[in-house]
UniProtKB/TrEMBL annotation:
Residues 1-20 have a biased composition (Basic and acidic residues). Residues 31-111 form the JAB1/MPN/MOV34 metalloenzyme domain. This is JAB1/MPN/MOV34 metalloenzyme domain-containing protein. Pfam families: JAB. Residues 1-32 are annotated as: Disordered. Signal peptide: none annotated. The lineage of its organism: unclassified sequences, metagenomes, ecological metagenomes. One of its GO terms (molecular function) is metallopeptidase activity.
Length: 119
């Protein structure tokens, strides 16, 4: 049975609640605006533009992967840092052990800082 959550129904009085499903809750949670730190944004743009830009024919563009870290509050998702991870072909990126080690190191760093940031 799907776990049910309650939300306020604006069409009813303020004390009314209506159950919603997990998928609806997930969708509502993911509709928060995202605020990206300027330095994190710069890192994303610089890394991405190394593999896809106007001076590279589009057939030679590469797909990239990276890690974003930050935190969320009731209203926003805040991206504080970005870490380039790898690049691949035009539509395929392969992760290997070194990438998973790098991800683990970022995770350990975030945990060690103790400020509630996550990937």
């Amino acid at each position: 049975m799907t776990e049910e959550f309650e939300k306020r129904n604006p069409d009813k009085d303020e004390n009314s609640h209506e159950p919603i499903s997990d998928s609806e809750t997930e969708s509502a949670r993911n509709n928060k605006p995202v605020i990206i730190n300027a330095e994190a944004y710069k890192n994303i743009i610089l890394y991405a533009s190394r593999y896809a830009n106007q001076s590279i024919p589009s057939k030679d563009w590469k797909e990239i992967y990276g890690i974003l870290t930050g935190y969320a509050d009731d209203d926003f998702v805040f991206v504080k840092n970005s870490y380039p991870l790898t690049f691949g072909h035009d539509t395929d990126v392969q992760l290997d052990e070194r990438h998973y080690v790098f991800i683990s190191e970022i995770e350990e760093m975030l945990y060690g800082e103790g400020n509630g940031h996550f990937m």
